[in-house]
Amino acid sequence: MPVTDFSRVEKNLRDRGYTVKIFSGGAEAAAYLNGAIDGVSVGIGGSATVKDIGIYELLETHNEVYWHWTQEPDAARAGAMKTDVYLSSVNALAESGEMVNIDGIGNRVASTLFGHKKIYLLVGRNKLATTYENAVWRARNVAAPLRARQMKRKTPCAVGDGICRDCRSPERVCRGMVVLWGPMLGMEAEVILIDEDLGL
Ligand code: SF4
């Protein structure tokens, strides 16, 4: 049973039109997704959460999966744009239900908006923020600097104190921010809440 109280965010997500599932850990979430996604094409966005729970290795045995973190990146990104199903994590989830994602190339945020029959949004408990403003703050000041550091970029946040300086560096990783207020019309969306610290 999950220890984190997801009840408020769960209600707010359902009120916005999302299907919501809650799991006590990444392994349980991965097992659920592996059962729910079968015999279809699947695209995956850049996601440390996806990597953490090992879902790619499970899905690729019985689906046509495109993921640029494990395959030739350009071909995988192109293939992932047109799949039946798309998996992404988010940089932050407000208790009021808004989901915030920052992107550098744009493939991930674009796929959360258009092009698929269904998207799954995977959210570890560490992504929860008490308000929308705090969710934006987390995406910009926690997730993005961590990603810049992980990618060994020479940005102020990565080589310095980890604080975002809204830089103009050519190596800037955060070039667009998308806020999901609800499922996009014509695309089913399911939020997977996981009671485990996952991703950045
Ligand atoms: S804008 Fe620059 S300093 Fe801020 S998080 Fe992005 S890369 Fe780092």
Taking the sheet with the most strands, its summary is: 6 strands, parallel
CATH superfamily membership of the domain at 7-97 and 106-130 and 180-194, which one? NagB/RpiA/CoA transferase-like
Query: Helix count?
Result: 8
Class of secondary structure makeup: alpha/beta
The CATH top-level class label of the domain at 7-97 and 106-130 and 180-194: Alpha Beta
Q: Percentage of helical residues?
A: 25-40%
Molecules bound to protein: iron/sulfur cluster
Distance between the termini: 24 Å
What letter string, H or E per element, gives the SSE order?
HEHEHHEHEEEHEEHHEE
Under the CATH scheme, the architecture of the domain at 7-97 and 106-130 and 180-194 is 3-Layer(aba) Sandwich
Q: What oligomeric state do these chains adopt?
A: single chain
Shape: globular
Query: Would you give the CATH topology of the domain at 7-97 and 106-130 and 180-194?
Result: Rossmann fold
How much β-strand is present in the residues?
A: 15-25%
Strand order of the largest sheet: 1-10-7-4-2-3
Any low-confidence stretches, pLDDT <50, length ≥5?
Answer: none
Characterize this entry briefly.
With 200 residues, the protein is an alpha/beta fold. It is 34% helix and 24% strand. The protein has a domain at 7-97 and 106-130 and 180-194: Rossmann fold (3-Layer(aba) Sandwich).
Label this structure with key terms.
alpha/beta; Rossmann fold; six-stranded parallel beta sheet; four-stranded mixed beta sheet; 8 helices; binds iron/sulfur cluster
What secondary-structure arrangement, pairings included, does this model have?
Elements: H1 7-15, E1 19-23, H2 26-36, E2 41-44, H3 48-53, H4 55-59, E3 64-67, H5 73-80, E4 85-89, E5 92-94, E6 99-103, H6 107-111, E7 118-124, E8 128-129, H7 132-150, H8 156-159, E9 176-180, E10 188-194
Parallel strand pairs: 1-10, 2-3, 2-4, 4-7, 5-8, 7-10
Antiparallel strand pairs: 5-6, 6-9
The protein binds iron/sulfur cluster.
